[in-house]
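To: structure subgroup
Subject: Chain for Friday's discussion

All,

I'm putting the inputs and outputs inline so they're searchable in the archive.
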Amino acid sequence: WERWVSFLSNTLKHTTDKNITVICKQCPGEKKLSAAVSSTSNLLKHLTRQHRQSLLSEPSSSSMDNTAATPKMIAGYVVEEMLPLRTVESPSFRCILNKIPACGKKAALPDRKTFSTYLDKCYADMEMELKETFESLEYISTTADIWTSHNKSFLGMTAHWIDPSTFVRGHAALACERVRGRRTYVIGNEIEQVHSAYGLNSKVTATVTDNGSNFIKAFRMFQKSDSDEESEEDEEVTFTDVEQTLSTESEGQFSLPPHLRCASHTLNLIFHDVEKWLQANEAKFIYRSATSKCSAMWTKANCSSVASELVDNFFKKKLIVPVSTRWSSFHDALSRITDIPLAELNTVCTQFGIKCFTDREYLFLKEYCIVLKPLTVALDILQGEEHCYFGILLPTLEILMSRTLALQDELKLTASLPDIIAIKVRFSSMMDNKEAKLAAVTLPKFKLRWIREEEKKDMVRPMLTTECRGLSLEDQQPAQDHKNPANSTDDFFSFEEDDCTYSAETEVMEYLKSAGSELGVLSQFPRIKTISLYNTATPSSAPVERLFSLGNLVLTPRRNRLSSERFERLTLMRYNNFFKNNTAK
């Protein structure tokens, strides 16, 4: 019906359940036309007979919209579905588009070269939108990692922020560019260039990477510290070879933001600690025999269709096969096996031709899964993105330690295993980190609840008060001055406000007593809100890993000739959902 709005009245009168009556705008007077609800053939006959010239001369708004929307819709389909660019020249694809009815003149379908130019324009628009978004933000965090595919290395980077007005977590992919060489300078230089391209050099609170030695060395060498200037005064004068200095690349022309190591990757290292302990301890014999039987089941079910069908018919679910890229998959695979009763499990083992599990082995696997269950839950929490903040790290570790140690009395074969999960050793630098404590306390969901010892609470509370005392309310503009409009009399009786009326101590006390666990509560506490921006960073580098998972779907073996620049643009537009978010524009 929208096609006839310019010719017919907007008032539609249903005379019956099947017919409808409208008024023609082109005819003098009130010319009433009747048509079926499911068909507009009568209306089309009247317009073609009586107003043919008007119908042909007046451009249809729907046809104009169709012409303008066709390139964007095609680009959205190709990018979102990660299809090759040659799709636009595919005869079957063009046949589908030609079959779609449209009013007026159809838009010409683009060829591959024209379509590539249009994608470049869309990518430039996306970059412009991101830069405009970053200009309005004060604090942004990034993640970085290196991915290798088809003998090519790519540096991926994502940005994360919290909207200061709505407290909504935002994220975007910044780069997935080709890097050559593994030198520390190359990594540091590329990260700094990406930050500079988006104007983020002075806004990045931290960059999160994995525990790779290349990233650790790069940030150790190029990270800017407050003590650099002081140390320069105490250093002795040294002489260097000028020719050697000029022949090497200058590595001091840029500085990197603070560095955070991926918490999920560190937790995964604890899994390796547990495995090493089991391989070297007295439990190694039962561990090896139990896991070897599990591996035999996984191999049999994964390589034989008959065995796979047998598992489906007997257990009504498939066995989970461990994957090296999914860190908790080994625990999940063992949990799936231990969920099966021992009698049924041995029945399947007999049909597979595998040695049956003993009661001791089955109990060992049960206890192994019980001990590592809190670790896998913590791993999943820290790999979040939408509602995952830097302040979640310390409360997660505290709960993980308490729950793991609480299991010790219930274990028989693995009673000493919880002691191997050394959270404090792996996260020793983070346990006493000031920014991590402030980030956790300024999350209304936690406050001081995650701290069990009163002594630690008495240490963190003054820390928060001291941090608030160092902030000025002049720049915060708290939303408390909702008074009557000022007039000339009020201007005459103007006095200086007492800064002590709402001190830092009072704000901290009111915040800790306040109810509610949403971030919107921080709007009532301007100093706490400013400090809570420590939560801008993510506790892990999982977001950039998701970018690489997406890139693996774009850079397929059939598209290995895709240029690095084109691959980066397609991947970033897909990750940022550029066309999906701009559909209504």
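Points worth raising on Friday:
DSSP finds 27 helices and seven strands in the chain.
Residues 301 and 308 are 5 Å apart (CA to CA).

D.
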